[in-house]
């Protein structure tokens, strides 16, 4: 059975260590902890207190590029002690982009075989969120890009520091929720610290389970600035070969501007739902639960559902390309 992995992301000082410590108070030593510090000295290790032998430190990095290689190496080493833990928690630095981490679980065969990235939990600092988003405080372009990525790649949002907002609580939280929904309408929201690990660790994200995304019957787009979230839904039978050709073209067109994709697909000759997910130009298909019987839901009526998040995405062109991957399409290959 694959070991579940939970990545905690969020800006500097947002409260990641506090939340993880809350989990460790009733989970340790049943979890392995991977810490990512931007610097030579790891202060958080003095604050967190699981079994020290199950802590892996990644210093001087941001869980991307070369440091991502260290993460893969560390997770592989943990497999030698798989009987000693039930789950893995990863605490990323506030300067870390979750995208490359999610990508690692798609492209590395050992990680794909033995671990499952169940959720990216992004901590939303209620006090400073709007200041950073609206550029009321001075941050460089790279930091703000990472800030947006932590929203885009989240499967769940957890609000911190609400008690410090005072009289402005309701109006601030309303604005924050609006921004989160515009950038990533698929992520769940947790308002308060959970009382038990299952409150988050059993959260069902269709990123890893075949629970359908909350889509309207028609295609639609949410956007703020250049980042947009588009949802596409249509029935019919998809041909895997055509879909893979279209996805290759799609990733080439948008390159690094297509952050993530996910979906539930109806493939020809496949009695089970096909779970699709992508991070940048890496993608994967997996099998979910069985579709209802043909008597209840004819194969041509099964719904294909897609969500893509990225910059300057063209809903009309992407939808047209996907529909050209249908078995009944008469428009030819989607490229």
Task: Tell me what you see in this structure.
By secondary structure, the protein is α/β, with parallel strands linked by helices. The chain has two domains: 3-201, Rossmann fold (3-Layer(aba) Sandwich), CATH 3.40.50; 220-323, CobW-like, C-terminal domain (Hypothetical Protein Yjia, Chain: A,domain 2, 2-Layer Sandwich). The chain is 31% helix and 27% strand. It has eleven helices and 13 strands. It has helices spanning 16-27, 44-47, 66-78, 98-107, 109-114, 129-133, 141-152, 169-183, 198-201, 240-254, 315-323, and strands at residues 3-9, 31-37, 55-59, 87-91, 115-125, 156-160, 188-190, 220-224, 227-235, 258-265, 272-279, 282-290, 303-311. The strands form two sheets. A seven-stranded parallel sheet has the order 3-2-4-1-5-6-7, with helices on both faces. It has a six-stranded antiparallel sheet with strand order 8-9-13-10-11-12, sandwiched between helices. A hairpin with a 2-residue loop joins strand 11 (272-279) and strand 12. It starts with a strand and ends in a 12-residue tail after the last helix. 38% of the residues are buried.
CATH superfamily of the largest domain: P-loop containing nucleotide triphosphate hydrolases
Q: How much of the polypeptide forms β-strand, as a percent range?
A: 25-35%
**Main sheet: which strands, in order across?**
3-2-4-1-5-6-7
As residue ranges, the low-confidence spans are 38-53, 60-67, 203-218
Report the structural category: alpha/beta
Summarize the structure.
The chain has 335 residues and is of the alpha/beta class.
